[in-house]
Amino acid sequence: MRCIWCGHETTTDKSAATDQVRYANKEHIFPEAVGGKRCLIQGLVCKQCNDSLGSDVDQYLKTSDISMMHQYQIVDGIPGKSRGKEDRLRKLTQKNEIAHYAGCTKIKRSKDGSSTEFNDPDIYLYDEKLSRALHKCLLNSIVDMQKLEALPEALQPLKNYIITGEGQDSGWALGLAYANVFDRHAFEPICSSLISDSAGKLVAGILLFPSMLAVVGCSSSVITKEYLSITASNLYKKILSQFSTAYASDFISYYKGYGFNEISGRQSVHPEMNLIIVCSHKRGHPISGKLQRLTRCVYCGQINPTGVEYEKVKILQRSNHQHVRTKNDWNVYEPEDMPLIFDAADKQHFDHYFQSYQGNGIQVDVKKLDALRVNWSAQTICCIGCGSDIHAQPEHFFF
């Protein structure tokens, strides 16, 4: 038997391992850190690949998404893997206070479990580490469900993306439906189904966690708004046809995301299943001396240029200007913008001010923006992130 990741020959006998034949330990289909218990057939993953993917990919599934972080705190039966006393203490601490791996979002839970505090809860933001970890769960599930002993050529791009992030900008999007934050059930994560096209080619899989339902593609550019809409509709019909009305209603409402959706501001691709498309955002391309009129996709959150530009000197004002940090990287402050913002008397503070402004999105005076909106009309554009048609009204445009 050979390792599905590196191709080395493997053995389940540790004493028989050599430089050419690697020892293969147990590989969980879903990481233990999120409640996984079932394993692939021993011999399919060598210990070196298991360890490296565990530290580079698996470990982030628990700490790259606020819902997964919350799941770890409140769902019983998720002890996670312990590698010693320090690791056990850290995991016990995380049951009361857990932080996003990048240190921004945090969840604090009272010791008696009676209250939970969410700090900076970023919802439905694309995270490469979460994406790669979910795609690894899918690949493991495919190997398990189809009883594969080697990966076919069609799955090689998926394998490469998981290992290295290769093709990150090619559209490895996700479809996510978050579970009710107030009502979590304990169950082992599963791949509920694999989806094939009319030709029998494997296209995607549906993964169920106590915290979310995820539609994950087997190749890049599979998960689009249109595909998710069709998948959600089929899933909805399948649930209604296979289960009792009460169970179907419970299942659908469980993944409605009550408590999370209110924060996200995203529009679902389906009125009942509440699937949201989450994709890598395209970086902005600032134009020197210009302000680009922008709008945000209601489905994926991508900021899009609308093709309308204004001279900065005609828009930015020294008066009524208030700096607010934003994540908009299409219109950013440049050194030559400072005289448009500060009076000559503030020139000695130029260096100090510019350091705090540089790279942040420009904020235009509200009155000036309202005056411009009077002459704007509705516009339909294709989102550069997810490809959806955006029907933007004047009040949706900004700089």
List key phrases describing it.
14 strands, 3-stranded antiparallel sheet, alpha+beta, 12 helices, globular
Description:
The protein has 399 residues and is α+β, with helices and mostly antiparallel strands. The protein has two domains: 9-278, no CATH class; 290-396, no CATH class. It is 28% helix and 17% strand. It contains twelve helices and 14 strands. The strands form five sheets. A five-stranded antiparallel β-sheet has the order 7-8-9-6-10, with helices on one face. The longest helix is centred in the middle third of the chain and has 18 residues, at 128-145. The protein is globular and about 75 Å long. It starts with 8 loop residues before the first strand and ends in a 7-residue tail after the last strand. The model has no long low-confidence stretch (mean pLDDT 85).
